[in-house]
Design goal:
This protein has 261 residues and is an alpha/beta fold. It is built from eleven helices and five strands; from the N terminus they run H-H-H-H-H-E-H-H-E-H-E-H-E-H-E-H. The two termini are 20 Å apart.
């Protein structure tokens, strides 16, 4: 119940949905005696789209999230990784979504976020051959669980089945933290998720009594890219980045209200 309530309450605050709902309400009012309010709502919807699809705005929303944890460095051997990472015997990949597309390989069924997370986990797994790779996610409306798709994709990328552990029941990050607490206790582990999602994931895991070591992946921003002209540039990618940043802040607020962080 709370899971679906969270989804429903989040939608109106995401830029595209806010613009759609506001424009719809404005157009309804334009057909009534409250035309002035209707025009204001339509203008607000257009302004929201213009603001949140601006590259500069999107970058300022995403940057504080992604700057919290640095990525694991390029390495040829485990000794070149941070000491905290070398001591981990589990690499946890949080779910990132997939599509149940017939005829597609498991890798190609993964969303861009899930693929970025898994690629980083596979890289780290090759450097840490003793570590298990734990993949997470229920099936939702799909035929197969996300954990199964991730597991089979990891296998196709060279991770042997005996190293892969599936968590098929978690629906969201909070569920994942609770399941990991039951399985790992106080054992340190590498936590692999999107960089923009990492602050909330770390907070939930630490509140659950876990000892995660951040290994962010799937960065939305790259240092030095679009820094000169971003404030006079607009595109759909910026709208997506803004949406993810706002979604993360709403998720953190929800977790705080529930006492999870």
């Amino acid at each position: 119940m709370l899971f679906w309530l969270k989804k429903a309450l989040t939608l109106p605050f995401l830029p595209l949905y806010f613009a759609l709902f506001t424009a719809l309400a404005g157009n309804v009012l334009l057909c009534s005696k409250r035309r002035r309010l209707g025009r204001a709502l339509v203008a607000a919807s257009l302004l929201a789209l213009a603001v949140f699809s601006n590259k500069g705005v999107a970058a300022r929303l995403v940057e504080p999230l992604e700057a919290r944890y640095v990525p694991m460095p390029e390495a040829r051997v485990a000794g070149e990784l941070p000491l905290a990472a070398v001591s981990c015997r589990a690499i946890v990949v949080l779910g990132g979504g997939h599509g149940d597309s017939a005829g597609f390989s498991r890798v190609n069924q993964l969303s861009s976020s899930a693929l970025g997370r898994l690629a980083e986990a596979v890289r780290l797994a090759r450097l840490l051959p003793e570590a298990k790779v734990m993949v997470s996610g229920d099936n939702g409306a799909q035929r197969l669980s996300h954990a199964q798709i991730l597991a089979e994709a990891a296998g196709s990328l060279g991770i042997t089945p005996d190293r892969i552990v599936r968590l098929d029941s978690p629906r969201d990050t909070d569920d994942e933290a609770q399941e990991l607490a039951r399985r790992l206790g106080r054992e340190p582990f590498l936590l692999v998720t999107s960089a923009w999602h990492m602050p909330r994931a770390m907070a939930l895991c630490e509140k659950a009594g876990l000892r995660p070591v951040a290994a962010p992946a799937d960065f939305l921003l790259r240092p030095g890219v679009d820094t000169d002209w971003e404030w006079v540039s607009w595109d759909l990618g910026a709208l997506e980045r803004s949406t993810k940043a706002i979604h993360e802040r709403l998720g953190l607020l929800w977790s705080q209200l529930r006492g999870r962080v």
